Amino acid sequence: MSAIIELEAVRKTYETGIVRVDALRGVDAEIAEGEYVAVIGPSGSGKSTLMHILGCLDVPTSGSYHLAGQDVSAMTEAELAEVRNRRIGFVFQQFNLLASMPAWRNVELPLVYAGVSRPERRERALAALERVGLADRADHKPGELSGGQQQRVAVARALVTEPALLLADEPTGNLDSESTVDVLNLFDELSRLGRTIVLITHEHDVAARASRRLVVRDGNIMTAGAA
Amino acid sequence: MNWPETFRTGAEAVQAHRLRSILTMLGIIIGVSSVILTVGLGQGAQDEVKKQIDSLGSNLLVVSPGSTTSTSGVRGGFGSASTLTLADAQAIADRSVVPDVERVAPVTSSSVSLVNGTTNWTTTLVGSTADWLPVRSRTLESGRFFTRAEVASSAPVVVLGADTASELFTGSAVGQRVTVNGTSLTVIGVLATSGSSSSEASQDDTAVAPLGLANSVTGGTGVSVSSIYVEGAQEATLGAAYQEIQALLANLHGVTTADADFTITSQEALIDTANSTNRTLTVLLGGVAAISLLVGGIGVMNIMLVSVTERIREIGLRKALGATPRSIRRQFLVEASMLGFAGGLVGVVLSVIGARVLPPLIDQPVSLSLLAIAAALVTALALGIGFGVYPASRAARLTPIEALRSE
């Protein structure tokens, strides 16, 4: 299996005035296509920074990051936007759905930025909603859906562009235990279908679902082994 | 994100906060409609002045005594000297000397009391010639005007203005008699109303009599006249007539045109004078309105900045999903210009309504011009874009992380 993600000596340093924070101190990691990886670590460990870099929301201070063979470590803001649009599907802890739009329009949003035509967008959005089992909720606004359903809409949105990487940042952090199981089962299923998933969490039972765990501590990956 | 999508997103954002959008547009609405109405009022006033002056008679020149500027540079009183004589009028009427003149009507005027039995009415008695009627572009409502023969013989006849006639007589005035300073005059005609607005009321409150008779009744000299109305042969040659009269009178009075003891005024000059006053007022009021439009634009910027702050998570999300800084900037710019343009449209609609409703209330005509409307719309749009630039680029500059992180 070829590597989707290759991190080499990735460092990230924040400088706020006189304080210098080394959030990542030379991280090396490789994630293969189709892997289901959990990134765990306590808060302040650099796990969020790692997620930002993996998600192309930020660029490393030094080191290189190849996503699907493409070096993204020195890209401009506009180039990164395109990579995020085409290669990465995000699932956030806060769902981040736009409250004024029905589910299907939330799902089609990445396709709007990809320049897909309207009829095709609707078709693909409905297909993605069907895949997460919410075909009958396409016209509901986020406020009319339960937390678990909202997060499944967010997963549909992440899948609609057929991205190389599904990046989930604490996807169950705002869900009750029933919805958590619901969403994690969905991830299991997607993983079985061959999706590459990176899941950031601080809950060990959530991480236990993944095929591999990366433990981040003090800006470094401590252990990388099979779960 | 292409343009149609951007416009759709912008329209949705405007609709999503309907009340706030309307309040934001309010400044633009008020600004646009007040600019259009102010310009419309100014234009209406100018049209009215032109109409009034046109109603005095087209291609008319008025010769008045007194100089505009004395040699010392001090402006003499308009009509302060009685330097115009009947002989001047007769000289102007000579077609071989002044070929571009059609008719000449020398005029004297004085305030008199007209008496009919116990009814007493003070008005202006105008003494003139038979040409007065066509030169002043007046028509008769009933009866007839006095003839050249009656002017020559100073016949005791009088033609009354419509208001004067109705003040003095209950029925038809023609054939009745009025007494002026002890002289009994026969009313031979009544003038039709001049059609001018209230400010020209004196046009309808007047009495016109043969020049010689008017002089003898009011104790005038019989030599000097208060002004000479001259009708040019054609509007195109009015300038030539002006110069011919100027040269002739200067020659007759033994003065140079530079220190002439008379003033020739054309209708155009009157219009210009009246319009320059109007223009000053229009510019002043329009300036105030324009400032209110500017304030409206600042309101748009203010709300757009609030909107950027409020939708910071949405901006972060859109960026995470692949929105480039450019498309975010565009989205907010389009939203701001939509607010500006929609405000402009509503302002235009309001001003069109205002132009219908206001004139009877303020007794002033309002004439809307398409140019003013188009200019106001373009300005509103430009304000939206102009004041949208800063909020939009602030939204575009946000990094996705800080935008997503904020609560």
Automatic annotation (TrEMBL), chain B:
Residues 288-400 form the ABC3 transporter permease C-terminal domain. Pfam families: FtsX, MacB_PCD. InterPro entries: ABC3_permease_C, MacB_PCD, Macrolide_Exporter_MacB. The keyword Membrane applies. The chain crosses the membrane at residues 21-42, 283-308, 336-358, 370-390. The keyword Membrane applies. Its main location: membrane. One of its GO terms (molecular function) is transmembrane transporter activity. Residues 21-248 form the MacB-like periplasmic core domain. It is a multi-pass membrane protein. GO terms for cellular component: plasma membrane. It is found in: Cell membrane. Keywords: Cell membrane, Membrane, Transmembrane, Transmembrane helix. It comes from the Bacteria. Belongs to the ABC-4 integral membrane protein family. PANTHER family: ABC TRANSPORTER PERMEASE YTRF, MEMBRANE COMPONENT OF TRANSPORTER-RELATED. This is FtsX-like permease family protein.
